[in-house]
Structures are given as structure tokens and as C-alpha cells.
Amino acid sequence: xxxxxxxxxxxxxxxxxSWLTDNVPAVPLPSMDTEEGFRLHQAWEKKLFDARWAxxxxxxxxxxxxxxxxxxxxxxxxxxxxxxxxxxxxxGIFLFAPTLFEFGSREQQDRYLPAMASGEEIWVxxxxxxxxxxxxxxxxxxxxxxxxxxxxxxxGQKIWSSRGTYGHRLFGLFRTDPEARRHHGLTYFTVDLASxxxxxxxxxxxxxxxxxxxxxLDDVFVPDADVLGAPGEGWRIMIATTGSERGLNLRSxxxxxxxxxxxxxxxxxxxxxxxxxxxxxxxxxDAEAYRLFTFGTVTKLQGGxxxxxxxxxxxxxxxxxxxxxxxxxxxxxxxxxELDAASPEAVDGARWLDGFLxxxxxxxxxxxxxxxxxxxxxxxxxxxxAR
Length: 387
Fold this sequence. Notes:
CATH architecture of the largest domain: Up-down Bundle
Number of strands: 8
Shape: globular
Structural class: alpha+beta
Radius of gyration: 21 Å
């Protein structure tokens, strides 16, 4: 693994940094989980897209720069260092798009990718159901063939759908063969959430904002053109999406390097005992270790390798690191840690508290860490299954 950046990569970093310095909003945008914040984040995505920064690693024909994974990591480092707005389009550009490039038809790519990259269409995850959380093979939402109209009729319920309250399109699994074994008979669909029969019900997070939604589908028609891959191949295609979520795309190192630096600054300002100092140092070391691990993953992919079950190791590490980092910040803040953004004495606009509440979901979403540890034991370490 070569950690020396080329002259071209260094120039790319400087170009990114300069643009962000000139364009990142001086005042943070409202939460994307509010109606106003969602709209303003969409406008930010359009600004990124117009400058060809929204999807730097995509082909130029879809608004990207054709950059490699190393340049993408550089962009992410600079993006988070600059304190730029969160990516309201992340479900689409980081999770669904890699799957679409691998399994989608050219017609689907041409239809979905431009609107996804510009923020015009925000994509929603359609994985979890009331009886199927981390165990996606247990999904019960079904799709029945409608040959007359050339498509499928969907019925069921999805829950904990990120960006679901205000989003536009859903990707997810539906059972097309109820007689098949658990991991079989599943098909990967995309659904227009404006379709007749779709009902979206917001779910409030710990902060009271509707960051999730439950989505009900009652006789929703989906044409064949909106099926990704062949019917019955849903599980195989879904694994590619979750690999992106757990492995490389969703949580770049830049996302953790920036708060680790902020934590160091907070410690310098407020001080603390030896135990707190050690926790701060550990948080910084973990963020740097994750950065090095990710560059190692990129080297592996550039050499023709795949991530596979190793993505579960990655997911367990970054999700626990995020919780520990923010918990350390709250310990440093002491009694000020409980103040919300409305308090004039809140430190950094209560950013640490908000980050901690969000981090608590990390060990749950993208497959609970308990499930990931089972995967690591069985598929990485080769241990026998528990009986």
C-alpha cells in the first residue's frame, strides 16, 4: 500500500479545498430531517452537481469526474474537514448507485443516475420490515406478477426507511416466490413513492425530527423496467448494496477524521484528567487507523480484489468508534453536554450531543453489530456455527 500522494492527487486536493472554502455555507443548514432543511440540502446537492463535485468517482456522462477511489477519499477528507453540509442524497449515490452500475441496465442508469446525482430525486432504503430487521431473508412484503400490464403489484410494509419522510424513490427487496427458501425467491425493486397505493408515515428520532419513515404499499404497480436484475436474483444483488453500506462507501474516513480533530481541539480548550486524555488519544488513533485500513481496502479493490465479508469487520469498527468518540466529547463537556442548541451556553451549538445521539444508531443500522460479529466468526474466522 503506497500512502504517498501523486502530484496530480495533491493538485486535486487543493482544487477541492479551494472550492469548498469559497462555497460551504457560512451558517450550517437546518437539519435535513425537517422540510426546510431537506429542501436546502437538495439545493446544496444541485450546487455540488453543477460544479461536478457531487459524484467525483462517477463517469463524466453522469456528472462525475471519472476520478479514482483515492481521489474520492481525498474529496471526502476535504469535504468533512470544511464542515460541509451532510449528504441528503447519500442513500442513492453511496449505496444504490454502485449496485446500479453493476446490475442495472443502461436504460436504468440513464434514467436514474442524473437525477440522483443532482439531488432532484432522493432515494430511500426499503430493507427493514416489522418482522425483518438485520435478518433480511425474512422479508414478507410481496410482489405478484401482473402480465396484463407488464409488471408487478407490491404489497407490504417497510420501516426505518432513511430519508423516507421526504424522499422520492425507494430501492428494496420484495418476495416474488413465497414457496422458495429464505434467501431465494426475492427480487430487487425500485419504487416511485408518488405511485398510487403508497403511504408514508414519518417516525421521529431521539431528537424529535422525522429522520425515518414507515412505508405502506397497497396494490402498488411497478413496471418491469423498474426491476433491478432478473426476478429471483434479489438476494445476490442486495448483498452488493449492503457491502457498499458496511464496507467503503457510506462511512469514509473523512467523516471521522474531522470530529477526531475537533475532539483534540476541545481537549486543548477544556483539559481533563489522564483517563480523558487517553480516551482522546485513542479516538484520534482509531480514526487514523480506519483511514489506513480504508486505503488498504482501496489498494485491494484496485488490484482486482473484492471486499466480501470483511465489510462486517469494517462496520463494527467504525460504528463503535463513532460512539466512543462522541461519548468522550460529552465527558469533556461535563454538565454542558446536556444543553441543546437552544441554550445560549451550549458548546459548538450542541453539535457533540447531536452527533452522539446519531452515533448511537450506528451499531444498529446497516445490520446490527451482533449480526456482523456472527458473520465475522463464520465467514472470516471460519468458526463453526453456534447450535
